[in-house]
Write a structure and sequence with these properties.
6-stranded mixed sheet; alpha+beta
Length: about 140
């Protein structure tokens, strides 16, 4: 099964819909040029399920910037730095599609991946990679 690494606390916002009321984070932003985005969508085409991998790396500044952004769009439930699982599988989602424009406050582009049917999974340590990567079979 394919997986996609997402830095924390962004993975937490995707997996915690109650954190932001009606504005659930259903968009994951990527800085992918067109050719790379097209290649990634061949690896994990729209309609496919994939694993959400929480990247191991997260600086205090990255965390603080993400929290400030979340507050600016109205999020009130926020994680603590030390409660975020990192360096492993944390959930699953279905890729609906990719786009370059959106009115969602979560879209910062240039590529947005639309996610649906998101749910948490028990944490499973795993090394991540760039783009969609093979995470093996779910057991």
């Amino acid at each position: 099964m394919k997986a996609l690494s997402i830095r924390q606390p962004w993975a937490w916002f995707i997996l915690t819909p109650q954190a932001h009321g009606p504005r659930q984070k259903t968009i994951e932003n990527r800085d992918w040029p067109d050719a790379y985005a097209n290649a990634q969508l061949k690896l994990c085409p729209p309609g496919s399920n994939f694993l959400l991998h929480a990247s191991a790396g997260m600086t205090v500044k990255e965390f603080d910037d993400a929290i400030a952004f979340a507050k600016s769009i109205g999020c009130t439930l926020l994680p603590r730095f030390d409660e975020l699982k990192r360096g492993g599988i944390v959930g699953m989602a279905r890729l609906v599609g990719a786009f370059r424009k959106s009115k969602s406050p979560w879209f910062t582009g240039p590529v947005g991946l639309k996610l649906a049917d998101v749910y948490p999974l028990p944490f499973r340590p795993m090394r991540g990679a760039l783009g969609f990567f093979d995470a093996g079979e779910l057991r």
